[in-house]
Amino acid sequence: MTDRRVPVTLDLSTPAAGRRGKPPRHFADLTPAERVEVVTGLGEKPFRAKQISQHYYGHLTADPAEMTDLPAATRDRLVEAFFPPLLRSTRVMTADGGTTVKTLWRMFDQARVESVLMRYPHRSTLCVSSQAGCGMACPFCATGQLGLTRNLSTAEIVEQVRDAARALDRGEIPGGPGRLTNLVFMGMGEPLANYKAVMGTIRQLVAPVPDGLGMSARNITVSTVGLVPAIKRLSQEGLPLTLALSLHAPDDELRSELVPINTRWSVDETLDAARAYYEVTGRRVSIEYALIRDINDHAWRADLLGKKLNARGHGWVHANPIPLNPTPGSKWTASDPAVEEEFVARLRGHGIPTTIRDTRGSDIDGACGQLAAEEAS
Fold this sequence. Notes:
- This protein is α/β, with parallel strands linked by helices.
- It has 2 domains: about 55 residues, DNA polymerase, domain 1 (Orthogonal Bundle); about 280 residues, Alpha-Beta Barrel (TIM Barrel).
- The chain has 12 helices and 11 strands.
- The strands form 2 sheets. The chain has a 9-stranded mixed beta sheet with strand order 1-2-3-4-7-8-9-10-11. The chain has a two-stranded antiparallel sheet with strand order 5-6.
- The chain is elongated and about 70 Å long.
- The two termini are about 30 Å apart.
- Pfam families: Radical_SAM (PF04055), RlmN_N (PF21016).
């Protein structure tokens, strides 16, 4: 097997930026004190910052026409200072009777990202992107094959969430007015490689209105291919987030091919970090495993995975096998249903709680990166 080492810069201290430069400064990028500074710098009273925050997080709007409690003479100036346009929807695809909505966004610098909103009877989940492209180079992943363009800013991530929350609140998704309950960082990019912006987003989302969206941290999932130092740091944030580890193979030989970062941190090191996350947070870890036909779906690999998980204790993990959503022209495809069933049965035989992940959106290029790849081609 080829040793494909992936250079990774963990963004643990510096603001999100990229090759194309920083996005414009936005309200969601600023601390409450910085927002007051902007307001007073424009000659307004400090309390205007709280009013604007109520509109943005409470009413989910950045439209000056809807901010009727602000002086008409200053609305446009305040909105211009706080809310530069960051995202523009260029393509929207729907499935499942309109309850699954995939949006392709074009950023200020023409970079493209995707988000997917999925409404269920008792919850609504948004799959959000944290980077334009991805530097992890997983060969079966559409985003991984795009390469990394840049990190997203906190505001660029928050804006994806606010748009989805607003669509639900305004009754634009079938099922009547509702609220966004769940968030998964499983869109484009490796969230823990853009650590500062992702955590800045999460802190705002869980803050109570009007300082944030008031979401539950328990309903937010952060996915990673296994950046061990960042997993350790995440465990110290004091938030009951769910960690999802994209494992895809239980043996180093295969995982180094499917997830090249494995040449930096092995399967055992990655699983040890995931187990430590559970020890600190008490939050059960989700093991994501894309089932790829004749590649990683062998029964003996299910047995090996079960043994490795059990070797680290019981009750700390939940397995999520995922039927691969193949990209056009790719040699990678989903496992045969019978093979999938056997894989799941083997895991359950080891006592591992196992649930096949829902594959909503497969008919609208549901795997993140597919629309962006089409636009780029």
